[in-house]
What does this fold into?
Amino acid sequence: MKVLVEGTVTDGSTHEGLPSVTVSLKDTKIWCSTKADGTFQLAVPKEQAESSFTITASFVGFETKQMAVIAKTGVPVVEVALALNTV
It folds into this structure.
């Protein structure tokens, strides 16, 4: 079973959604890309989602950002927001 992590990646200065950002579960091969509006959905294995985990957002021309996420047991969706800053 997996827990769905949903969120949005935005430009840190304009706060607009960024398309095609790579969002990944740190130290795994689990990843997805943001949609045109900057939203994403990442399926995290339940055993990892029941504790804390880290997601990473990376995009050419922007600093890579990591965010620790602590999911509550039984919550099917975790919402996160990542703001990337230009390099």
User: Anything to note?
Assistant: The longest strand covers residues 2-11. The CA atoms of residues 17 and 38 lie 4 Å apart. The longest helix spans residues 46-49.
